[in-house]
Amino acid sequence: MSEKHLQTGDDLPSYNEKLRLFAMRFCPYAERSVLVLNAKKIQYDLVFINLDHKPEWVFNFSPKGTVPALEYEQGKAIFDSNIINVYLDEKYPEVSLQSSDPLRRAQDKMLVEQFAGAQSAYYTAAFNAQALQPNMAENYHKGLELLQKEIEARGTKFLHGDEPGLVDYTIWPFLERFEALPLLGKAEFAIDKSKYEVLTNYMDSMKNVPAVKSYALAAETHAKFTESRIKGDANYNMLDSSAVCCMRPRKKKE
């Protein structure tokens, strides 16, 4: 799989008669759909998009040019990670990722909604630090505390049960990125194991889930991409080996 992000002027790759997900390698929303596809062991192609210089054809699959978008049939697509993931779970029920209990499904959706405050605080801390307000770190930790209490209350290894489900794959991409905040100088956003033992144990379990392990990136990598984006030159292709091998070394300053 190429890690290269296609951009304005690049051709649309040929269609290979299977599901195709348009994504961005560092996007948590796109990761949600990648994890669901991985968990269900569905064959699919993955096409990465440069969101600063979008190829013209991406708008044929996602009206606003956002990712993820899932091409389920040649030239036909659905977009938005929540819509895509529910579709995948219903279309491919062999590995069900949602509870059969309507109340539990509703509780999962409410948990995701309540966790949104922590996600919002993360975006501000990571990409717009000058706009940080004291209450944002507080809201961030309220989200972590809520999540930890829910894990404790459910008494299972994962939020879904003994195996991770849609609720886990929806929340995880942000937890993965939260670990980069201390590396970006935001120590107040650290997930301290002494305070969040249950949550950090849950996170360790998620890191070892095959669907997650095959796609996850280290906190250092997320921090490096974030720094490049803050500088106004997001390094989308930092993981693409062909791009790395062809980079010319910088001349040393005299």
Class of secondary structure makeup = alpha/beta
Query: Total number of β-strand segments?
Result: 5
Question: How do the SSEs run, as a string of H and E?
Answer: EEHEEEHHHHHHHHH
Number of helices: 10
Compute the separation of the termini in Å. 40 Å
The CATH C-level name of the largest domain is Mainly Alpha
Tell me the fraction of residues in β-strands, as a range. 5-15%
Strand order, largest beta sheet: 1-3-2-4-5
Q: Taking Cα atoms only, what radius of gyration do you get, to the nearest Å?
A: 19 Å
> Roughly how much helix do the residues carry, as a percent range?
40-55%
- Uncertain parts: 243-254
Mind summarizing the main beta sheet?
5 strands, mixed
Query: What name does the CATH topology of the largest domain carry?
Result: Glutathione S-transferase Yfyf (Class Pi), Chain A, domain 2
Mean pLDDT: 94
Number of domains: 2
The name of the CATH architecture of the largest domain is Up-down Bundle
Q: Identify the overall geometry.
A: globular
